[in-house]
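Give me structure tokens for this 103-residue protein.
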Amino acid sequence: MRRTEFEIKVWAALKKIPRGRVTTYKELARILGRPKAARAIGNACGRNPDAPETPCHRVIKSDGGLGGYSGGINKKIALLKKEGVKILKGKVENFKNKLYKFI
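Here you go.
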């Protein structure tokens, strides 16, 4: 698989998200200096060759919704729950406290 420089940067950033926390596509785009590239972040997550070790399942929508996952949404939910992230009605419960913001 051909890997772009942007994808490699996204995957490196994913590894910084702590277990039991989530971040958003928008937040990842911001810290990578591409604030309008949230959709591109999602595409890079979808091409992640090392999931779930490179934790793209920890990336969610800005409203706390789950977004997608290449392994299927049920797998994303299971991975998040295993890390202590509770899901209620398709959203991360206590979203603001679970949100990881990069410095």
